[in-house]
Design goal:
The complex is a heterodimer of chains A (118) and B (1159).
Chain A lengths: L1 E3 L11 E6 L6 E4 L1 E3 L8 E3 L3 E5 L10 E7 L6 E3 L5 E4 L1 E4 H6 L6 H11 L1
Antiparallel strand pairs in A: 1-2, 2-3, 4-6, 6-7, 7-8, 9-10
Chain B lengths: L17 H8 L25 H10 L5 H4 L1 H17 L28 E3 L18 H35 L6 H10 L2 E6 L5 H11 L5 E5 L2 H14 L8 E4 L12 E5 H9 L8 E4 L7 H16 L4 E6 L4 H7 L6 E5 L6 E5 L17 H13 L7 E5 L3 H18 L2 E6 L5 H5 L10 E6 L12 E6 L2 E8 L4 E8 L2 H9 L7 E5 L3 H6 L14 H9 L16 H13 L11 H7 L5 H13 L5 H12 L12 H7 L8 H18 L4 H7 L3 H20 L13 H30 L12 H6 L7 H9 L2 H11 L4 H15 L3 E4 L12 E4 L5 E3 L4 H4 L30 E10 L3 E10 H8 L3 E3 L5 E4 L3 E4 L5 H27 L5 H9 L5 H16 L6 E4 L2 H7 L22 E2 L6 E2 L4 E3 L6 H12 L2 E2 L6 E2 L3 H11 L3 H7 L12 E4 L6 E4 L1 H15 L1
Parallel strand pairs in B: 2-7, 2-8, 3-5, 3-6, 4-5, 6-7, 9-16, 10-12, 10-13, 11-12, 13-16, 15-20, 19-21, 22-28
Antiparallel strand pairs in B: 14-15, 17-18, 17-20, 18-19, 20-21, 22-23, 23-24, 24-25, 26-27, 27-28, 29-30, 31-32
Helix pairs in contact in B: 9-10, 12-13, 17-18, 17-19, 19-20, 20-21, 20-30, 21-23, 21-25, 21-29, 23-29, 26-28, 30-35, 32-33, 33-35
Classes of the chains: A alpha+beta (118), B alpha/beta (1159).
C-alpha cells in the first residue's frame, strides 16, 4: 500500500503516500494518511479509519482535509465515500456487505439501505 | 412554540438533497433545549443566539478546521439546518448518542451516519449579562455535532468536485490514447501527438508523462499567457495548485522552483536556456502547437533535432493540430518519429459558400462592402429562433476592415436590438478584448468581428456561426530593404478549416465563407511559416551563440529564403556581432543574451559602455520602449484631446525620445499620485505597456549586470524611518493584493453581462473605475519603492544638453545604417507628401502618427539656415547650410505606402562621418562620400578635413572604449589576454567616458557648412577615380599612426583607416581649384608658426608628426593623456569653468595657473 513518492529527505512524514483505489468505481487518488486522527487537522477525528488527503482545493496549513474512503469493515476492500460505493454507519461498509448485514441495523438504517438497493 | 409538525421535506441547505431528507425522518432522542434561564423557554432556541461566544471558541481554537475556515458559510448552513429541523418538528439541540454505545442495532443516531467528529475544546466564555444566558458544555457538545454534519457536508461537496474533475479528464478524447502515448514516449525518441483543439492534449499529456515517471518535463508554448493558464490548470488537475510541482517560466516571471516537475515555458525562453550552457535536466521536452510554425518554434525543432543525437536521455514530444502531420513525420524520419492521432471533439458544421458576385461589387475596389456580412446577420435572424443561443464570429483581415464591418453591423443591431457587436484585435486594450468573453442577455447574440487572433490564440466559447472573409493581413519582410510589409492575402486551406472549426466547439454550427468553393480549392494548403516572413538577424545571432557553426546548413523544417539569410548575416557583420568570416564576436555574444532586436541590444551595450552610470537607465528605458509593442491605443491618434494631452511631453527630436519623455512623465505621475490609469487614458496610452516597459528595462538591466556591463547597484541605504515607512507600505500593498485576488476570484464566478443599448458608452463606464483596485499598480509599487521610482526618473530623463546628445548618438550608432535623407523638393510639399530616401529604399513617407509625420517642418531648413553667399568659385543648386539633418529610424513598414516608423533627427554630416561604414574622400577633403550613397561637399577650406579627422579620432576612441569594456566584461582564460589587459592604461572608465561624451557632444554641434546630395547609380559610375590612377600612400598616416595604408582595389585611392579611403573621389572644377589654391598659398602652422606650402594632408602630417611644438600641444590639452589618481575627484574650476578630475594637490595647482592666465 505504501509507496515512496518523493525523495525529499526533510519532510519525512509527507513521504508516506497511500495509493487509494475504490474497488467499486475505480476512483484512484493518492491519500496522505490512513487512520482516525489525521495529523494535519488535529481537532477533527474520524470514527472509522479512513484514507485522508490534505484538501487539494484549499491552501495548505488550514487544517482542511478530504476523506476519500476506507477499507470495508467486513470484507476489507477499499471503497470511496460515494454513496453508490459505500455505506457508513459507525463503520464503513461496501454496499454488498452492508446489504448482507441489513438485518442487524436499526430500522432507520434499513430503510436507508433499502433506498440504495433500489 | 412555532414548531410546525408538518412533515415537510424541504432541504435545509439548498445544495443538500437526499441526505438531509433521510436524516430528517429519523427520530431523534429528545432533549430539552434547556437554555439556562427558564424565562426564555417560550422563545425559540437557536444557536445563533450564541454566535458571539461560539465564534470566540471556534476562532480561539489553536487548530483551524473547516468550520473556522468558512465561518460565514457555516452560519448560513446552521440557520438553514435549524429551520429544516423546526419544520420537521425535531429538536434543534441533539446531544447525539451516549458515549460508548457501540451497539448499532440498539440505538440509532443520525450522527452514526457521519464519519466525522469535531473535537474543539470547550472554553468557558464570559457570562453575558444582557442576554442572561450561558453556553454550557453540553450545549456546546450539541453544537459540535452540527459542526460535524457541516464538515461531512463540505467533505461530500469537495469529493464530488474531485470526482467531476476526474470524470471530465476521463471524457477527453486524448484519455483513450493515454497508454499508447506513454509507451510511445518510453520507447521512442520522438513522438508526434496530433489532435485538434479541445482534445485535451495540452493539459493531459504532461500529466500522463509525469505519472509514468518522468520527473522533469518542459512543455513549450508559443504564447506567454498560455504558459500561465496551462500551468494553473494542470496544477489544479494534479491537485497541487498550492504546491510548485507544476510551474511556468515566461519572459518576466516564473513560478518554477526546485520541486517543479512540469514546467510550461515559452519557446524563446527554452532556447535561451539552451544557450546558457546549463540546460535544466529535462527528461522530456514537449513542444506544443508546433503547427503554428512560429519562428522560435521552428528553430527550436531544429535545435532539438540536433540535441537528441547528443543527449540520449531526452525524449521529444511534438504536439500539433491535425494539420500537415506529414511534414513533422518526415522531418523526424531519421529518428523514426511515432505518430499518434487523436480525434478532436468537433460537432458537425454546416458549410455554405456565399461569394460576393462581381456585379454586386461597388465601383471602387479598394472599399470593403459590409453588406454581405450584414446579410448573414439577417439570415441568422430569420432562420434561427432567438431562443437558441449561439454567437457569431466574423474573421476579417485587419483593423480597418473590422471597423467597417462593426459600423455596418452596429447600424443593423440598433434596428433589431438583438445583436451586440464587438471588435477584437490586438490593438484594443485588454479590457476591451476581454469583453468578447462576457455574456449577452437572453435572446441577444454577440457578433464578434476579429482578426485571425481568434483563429488559434483566443478561444471564445459559445460560437455557433462563423463568417470567413477568406483574407488575412500578414507581415512579410523584405530583407534587402529591411522593410516589413503588411499586406492582405488569401488565407490557406488550413487556416480556412481552422476558422470553420471555431463554429463547432460547443455544438453543431454553421460556417459562411464569403468566397467561392473554387477560391477555396485554389488556396495554398498551408500558411507561410514565420521563418520566411520575418527579420532573421536575431535568430541567426542566437544560432551562432548556440554554437551553430554554419547557419546556412541548419536543418530548418522549412529553410528561410537564402537571400534573407545572407542579408541578415551582413547586418550582423555591420553591427560587429560577427567577424567577416562569420565567427561570433564578444560583442555578438553579449548581444545574443539580450531578448530584444539586435539593434536595440546594441543600443543597450553601447549605452552601458558609453553613458555615464547615472544615465544608463535612459538607454535601458529607451531600448525597452522600442522593444515592446506600441504603447498607443487606437484612440491615441484619432482623438484630438489625446493628442493635445500628449503634446507637452512630445520631444521634437523624434519618436524614440517622445516615448522616453512620456515614460518619465508617467513615472512622475506614479510618484506624485496614486494610479496613472486616468493619466494614460487621457493620452490614449495603454498603461499595461508601460508596466511591461518597466519590467523589460529591469530584466535588461539584470542581464547587463550578469554580463558585467553594468554595475550592480548597492542597495541604497535607508534611514530607519524610511525603512519603517516602506515596511508599512509593503504591508498595505500586500493586503491590497490579497483583496484584489479575492475580488478577482469572485468576479470569475459571476461573469459580466453585456448590455445591448449601452454599447457606445460601455467604454467610458468600464474605464471610470479608478476606485477599483489596480493590481498592476499594486505590483508596480511593490517592486519599485519611491526611491527607485525617483532614480528611474532621474536616470531615464534626457531632455537636453550632453545627456540628450549622447543618448541620441548611442541609439543612432546602434540603428545605423538605418538613416534617411529628405527629398530635395520636400519644402514645396504638404505634410502627407514629405518624401525620404533610405540607402536601400528610395521614396518612403513619414508615418502619419509619428512625430515628424505631424511636424515635418522641424526637419527642414529655414531661410535663415541657408547660407546665401557661397565661397568664390563654388556653385551649387543645393542649399549650403550647417543645419542639414537626417533621420535615423527603427524600421520601415509598408501598409498603404512605405513608411518610416520611429524616427529621430540627427545632424547630417556629423552623424554620417562618425558612423558611416565607408567614407571616401577626394584629395582636398572637400568632397566626401558616405556609404557610397550620400555626397557631402565642404566648400570652405579645411572644414571637411577637420570634421572628418575629429570623427575618425572620436570613433577610434569610442571603439577602444567599447573593446576595453567588453574585454573586461568577459572572463578571460588565456594568459595573453590577461597580459593585454595589464598593458592597457589604467584610466578609469568614468574618466574616459566623460571625456568622450564631452568631445562627441561638442563634435555633434560643430558649425560647418556643407551641401548634401543623394547619389544615384549613374553618379556612382563616374565619381570614383578608379584603381588605374596611381595613388601614393600616406606615410606617416595622420589618421591612425599604426594603420598601414593600402590602395582600394576598385575606387582607387588608399585606405587611411578601416573605413576611410583617401583620394578616390574625383574632383570637380571648384574642388580642384580650391585644392590648388590651398597648395599654393603658404600655410602657417598654428603651433610652431612655420610657414610652407603644403597640401591639406601634408599639413595634417606636419601637425601630427613634425611640428616641433607637438609635445607642448599635448600638455595644453592634458585631459586625453593624464593618468587619474585614486584620490581624484570631479572638480569644476570657478575660473575657467572646466570640469576636471584631479587630486586635491592638482586642484590647487590648477587654481593657481588658472588665475595667472586670467591675469
Amino acid at each position: 500500500m505504501m509507496a515512496d513518492d518523493d525523495k525529499k529527505p526533510k519532510e519525512e512524514v509527507e513521504q508516506l503516500v497511500y495509493d487509494f483505489k475504490c474497488s467499486s468505481c475505480a476512483m484512484e487518488e493518492k491519500a496522505h494518511y490512513k487512520g482516525k486522527n489525521p495529523p494535519f487537522s488535529r481537532n477533527l477525528s474520524l470514527k472509522y479509519p479512513s484514507y485522508v488527503m490534505k484538501d487539494p482545493f484549499s491552501p495548505p496549513g488550514k487544517g482542511e482535509i478530504l476523506v476519500l474512503g476506507s477499507d470495508c469493515s467486513v470484507c476489507g476492500i477499499s471503497i470511496c465515500i460515494n454513496k453508490e460505493c459505500s455505506f457508513f454507519y459507525l463503520k464503513m461498509y461496501c454496499i454488498p456487505c452492508a446489504l448482507n448485514l441489513n438485518e442487524t441495523f436499526p430500522i432507520e438504517v434499513k430503510s436507508k439501505l433499502l433506498q440504495i438497493k433500489k | 412554540m412555532g414548531r410546525s409538525p408538518s412533515p415537510g421535506r424541504s432541504n435545509y441547505y439548498k445544495r443538500r438533497r437526499s441526505r438531509s431528507r433521510d436524516r430528517d425522518r429519523h427520530k431523534v432522542r429528545k432533549t430539552s433545549p434547556n437554555p439556562s434561564t427558564s424565562k426564555h423557554v417560550e422563545e425559540e432556541f437557536s444557536f445563533t443566539s450564541y454566535k458571539r461566544e461560539l465564534n470566540k471558541i471556534i476562532l480561539y481554537s489553536s487548530e483551524s478546521n473547516t468550520v473556522a475556515n468558512s465561518l460565514d458559510d457555516f452560519w448560513v448552513f446552521l440557520k438553514k439546518y435549524e429551520a429544516t429541523l423546526k419544520k420537521a418538528g425535531k429538536p434543534i439541540v441533539d446531544h447525539g448518542p451516549e458515549e460508548n454505545s457501540d451497539e448499532p442495532s440498539t440505538k440509532f443516531s443520525k450522527f452514526h451516519c457521519i464519519n466525522f467528529t469535531s473535537s474543539m475544546k470547550y472554553m468557558d466564555t464570559v457570562y453575558d449579562e444582557r442576554e442572561r444566558r450561558k453556553l454550557d458544555k453540553n450545549l456546546f457538545q450539541a453544537f459540535l455535532n452540527i459542526g460535524s454534519i457541516y464538515i461531512d457536508f463540505k467533505n461530500k461537496e469537495k469529493f464530488t468536485k474531485l470526482r467531476k474533475l476526474r470524470q471530465a479528464q476521463k471524457d477527453l478524447p486524448v484519455a483513450k490514447y493515454r497508454n499508447e502515448i506513454v509507451s510511445a514516449v518510453q520507447n521512442e525518441r520522438v513522438v508526434v501527438v496530433a489532435g485538434d483543439t479541445g482534445c485535451g492534449k495540452s493539459t493531459q499529456v504532461p500529466q500522463y508523462l509525469h505519472e509514468a515517471g518522468f520527473s522533469n518535463i518542459a512543455c513549450t508554448q508559443p504564447r506567454r499567457i498560455a504558459c500561465v493558464s496551462l500551468s494553473k490548470r494542470v496544477a489544479y488537475e494534479m491537485l497541487t495548485q498550492f504546491e510548485s510541482k507544476v510551474g511556468y517560466q515566461i519572459r518576466f516571471e516564473k513560478s518554477k522552483t526546485a520541486d517543479t516537475k512540469i514546467c510550461f515555458i515559452t519557446e524563446g525562453l527554452l532556447l535561451r536556456q539552451m544557450s546558457s550552457e546549463n540546460l535544466p535536466n529535462y527528461d522530456v521536452i514537449i513542444l506544443d502547437e508546433v503547427h503554428e510554425r512560429h519562428l522560435m518554434g521552428d528553430f527550436l525543432l531544429g535545435v532539438l533535432k540536433c540535441l537528441i543525437h547528443s543527449r540520449n536521455d531526452i525524449k521529444l514530444v511534438l504536439m500539433s493540430a491535425t494539420i500537415n502531420i506529414k511534414l513533422f513525420e518526415d522531418y523526424f524520419s531519421a529518428e523514426s518519429a511515432a505518430v499518434i492521432q487523436v480525434p478532436g471533439r468537433l460537432f458537425p458544421i454546416e458549410l455554405s459558400y456565399k461569394p460576393v458576385l462581381i456585379d454586386d461589387k461597388p465601383k471602387r475596389d479598394d472599399r470593403l462592402d459590409p453588406q454581405p456580412y450584414v446579410q448573414i446577420m439577417q439570415l441568422i435572424d430569420s432562420k434561427y429562433s432567438k431562443d437558441e443561443r449561439g454567437d457569431l464570429l466574423v474573421f476579417m483581415s485587419g483593423v480597418q476592415e473590422i471597423t467597417a464591418i462593426c459600423d455596418a453591423a452596429q447600424q443593423y443591431a440598433e434596428k433589431t436590438k438583438n445583436w451586440i457587436v464587438l471588435p477584437l484585435h490586438s490593438g484594443l486594450s485588454l479590457a476591451e478584448q476581454d469583453k468578447v468573453f462576457d455574456y449577452p442577455p437572453e435572446r441577444v447574440r454577440k457578433c464578434i468581428v476579429s482578426t485571425n487572433i481568434a483563429e488559434t490564440s483566443v478561444t471564445i466559447d459559445g460560437i455557433r456561426f462563423v463568417v470567413d472573409s477568406g483574407k488575412v493581413k500578414e507581415m512579410s519582410y523584405d530583407s534587402t530593404t529591411k522593410m516589413q510589409r503588411l499586406k492582405e492575402f488569401w488565407i490557406s486551406k488550413a487556416s480556412a478549416d481552422q476558422r470553420k472549426g471555431r463554429a463547432g466547439r460547443t455544438g453543431p454550427g454553421v460556417c459562411y465563407r464569403i468566397y467561392s468553393e473554387q477560391q477555396y480549392s485554389d488556396m495554398e494548403p498551408f500558411s507561410t511559416p514565420e521563418v520566411s516572413r520575418v527579420p532573421l538577424a536575431s535568430l541567426l545571432l542566437l544560432m551562432s551563440s548556440l554554437g551553430v557553426n554554419d547557419v546556412r546548413r541548419f536543418p530548418f523544417l522549412d529553410a528561410p529564403p537564402e537571400e534573407a539569410v545572407e542579408n541578415a548575416l551582413l547586418e550582423l557583420k555591420q553591427h560587429g556581432a560577427l567577424t567577416s568570416n562569420e565567427k561570433l564576436t564578444s560583442l555578438g555574444r553579449t548581444l545574443s543574451k539580450l531578448p530584444v532586436e539586435v539593434c536595440l541590444s546594441k543600443a543597450l551595450v553601447l549605452g552601458a559602455v558609453t553613458l555615464p552610470p547615472h544615465k544608463r537607465d535612459s538607454a535601458l528605458a529607451l531600448a525597452a520602449a522600442l522593444g515592446i509593442r506600441a504603447i498607443y491605443t487606437t484612440r491615441a491618434h484619432r482623438d484630438f484631446e489625446c493628442e493635445n494631452a500628449r503634446q507637452p511631453d512630445e520631444s521634437d527630436h523624434g519618436d524614440p525620445l517622445t516615448l522616453l519623455s512620456l515614460y518619465c512623465a508617467w513615472l512622475r505621475e506614479k510618484r506624485d499620485t496614486r494610479g496613472g490609469r486616468a493619466w494614460c487614458r487621457r493620452r490614449g496610452i495603454e498603461e499595461q505597456r508601460l508596466y511591461e516597459l518597466t519590467k523589460l528595462a529591469a530584466q535588461l538591466r539584470s542581464l547587463l549586470q550578469d554580463n558585467n556591463l553594468m554595475e550592480t547597484q548597492e542597495p541604497e541605504s535607508m534611514s530607519s524611518a524610511e525603512r519603517a515607512l516602506r515596511h508599512g507600505q509593503m504591508k498595505q500593498l500586500k493586503d491590497m493584493r490579497r483583496q484584489y485576488k479575492q475580488n478577482a476570484a469572485k468576479d470569475l464566478k459571476n461573469k459580466k453581462h453585456l448590455k445591448v443599448d449601452s454599447w457606445e458608452i460601455v467604454d467610458d463606464k468600464s474605464n471610470e473605475d479608478d476606485e477599483v483596485l489596480d493590481i498592476r499598480d499594486i505590483e508596480f509599487r511593490m517592486t519599485n519603492d519611491a526611491q527607485r521610482i525617483q532614480a528611474l526618473i532621474a536616470g531615464s530623463s534626457a531632455s537636453s544638453g550632453r545627456d540628450l546628445i549622447m543618448l541620441k548618438v548611442v541609439l543612432c550608432r546602434a540603428l545605423y545604417p538605418q538613416v534617411a535623407v529628405a527629398d530635395n523638393f520636400n519644402h514645396h510639399k504638404s505634410t502627407a507628401e514629405q518624401l525620404y530616401h533610405t540607402w536601400s529604399k528610395p521614396f518612403v513617407f513619414l508615418h502619419p502618427t509619428s512625430y515628424f509625420g505631424k511636424q515635418p517642418r522641424v526637419l527642414q531648413l529655414t531661410e535663415a539656415d541657408i547660407q546665401k553667399d557661397t565661397p568664390a568659385g563654388y556653385e551649387t543648386r543645393l542649399p549650403l547650410s550647417s543645419k542639414h539633418q537626417i533621420l535615423c529610424y527603427l524600421s520601415l513598414l509598408e501598409t498603404t505606402k512605405p513608411y518610416i516608423v520611429n524616427s529621430m533627427r540627427m545632424p547630417a554630416a556629423q552623424t554620417l562621418l562618425l558612423l558611416a561604414h565607408s567614407i571616401d574622400t577626394n584629395i582636398g577633403f572637400t568632397r566626401i562620400i558616405c556609404d557610397a550613397w550620400l555626397l557631402l561637399e565642404f566648400p570652405y577650406p579645411e572644414t571637411g578635413l577637420n570634421l572628418l579627422l575629429k570623427a575618425v579620432k572620436l570613433r577610434q576612441r569610442w571603439d577602444a572604449l567599447i573593446n576595453r569594456r567588453l574585454l573586461d566584461a568577459t572572463p578571460t582564460k588565456t594568459v595573453e589576454s590577461e597580459l593585454e589587459k595589464q598593458n592597457l592604461p589604467k584610466i578609469s572608465y568614468e574618466e574616459v567616458q566623460h571625456e568622450l561624451s564631452c568631445d562627441i557632444s561638442s563634435y555633434m554641434i560643430s558649425d560647418v557648412s556643407y551641401t548634401i546630395k543623394r547619389l544615384l547609380p549613374g553618379d556612382l559610375k563616374t565619381i570614383y577615380q578608379g584603381a588605374d590612377e596611381s595613388h601614393p600612400t600616406v606615410e606617416p598616416n595622420p589618421f591612425d599612426e599604426n594603420f598601414e595604408c593600402k590602395p582600394h582595389e576598385k575606387k582607387g585611392g588608399v585606405f587611411v583607416t578601416d573605413n576611410v579611403v583617401f583620394n578616390c573621389v574625383v574632383d570637380t572644377n571648384w574642388s580642384y581649384s580650391s585644392y590648388e589654391e590651398a597648395y599654393n598659398i603658404p600655410w602657417t602652422c598654428p603651433n610652431c608658426e612655420l610657414t610652407v606650402c603644403l597640401s591639406p594632408i601634408e599639413r595634417l602630417q606636419h601637425k601630427h608628426f613634425t611640428c616641433s611644438l607637438k609635445e607642448d600641444k599635448k600638455i595644453a590639452t592634458p585631459q586625453t593623456t593624464r593618468e587619474i589618481k585614486p584620490n581624484a575627484k570631479e572638480y569644476t574650476c570657478d575660473n575657467c569653468k572646466q570640469t576636471l578630475y584631479m587630486t586635491p594637490v592638482e586642484i590647487l595647482k590648477h587654481k593657481k595657473s588658472c588665475l595667472k592666465k586670467s591675469d
